[in-house]
Amino acid sequence: xxxxxxxxxxxxxxxxxxxxxxxxxxxxxxxxxxxxxxxxxxxxxxxxxxxxxxxxxxxxxxxxxxxxxxxxxxxxxxxxxxxxxxxxxxxxxxxxxxxxxxxxxxxxxxxxxxxxxxxxxxxxxxxxxxxxxxxxxxxxxxxxxxxxxxxxxxxxxxxx
Length: 160
Known about the structure:
By secondary structure, the chain is mostly beta strands. Helix content is 11%, strand content 50%. Strands 1, 5, 6, 7, 9 and 12 form a six-stranded antiparallel β-sheet that branches. A hairpin with a 2-residue loop joins strand 10 and strand 11 (145-152). The longest helix has 18 residues, at 2-19. Mean pLDDT is 85; it is low at 5-11 and 13-27.
């Protein structure tokens, strides 16, 4: 009797495992024709008990991961910790070809963003595509120390 229940349990476990798996690559779930993405960034971080600041270079990376379709970057805005716009990087829409990438750099000496800086990236496409990977890379070196880390963007406005 125990073997019968164990077999039933095993069969149910396998069934739920395969029915709860994500969609296959050929499925169209997750495709989009545009998004607005919030990307955390840090123009400096803190160290030590007296909260000394460590300046960082910030790199915003936008990667079109669709192998067949271009996307259009319609806005890249950099904000400081209080939510005030510091800089607009895109005045005219920029076409990003399939599998291509863009980068925007905030130099280490530019401390305007603060530890709560962020980017807002807007993109669109004429057809549904794989959404781009948008992330920030922070890197700094000084005082015989080095630091680097990344932050991944988060969609904040649902697709059209």
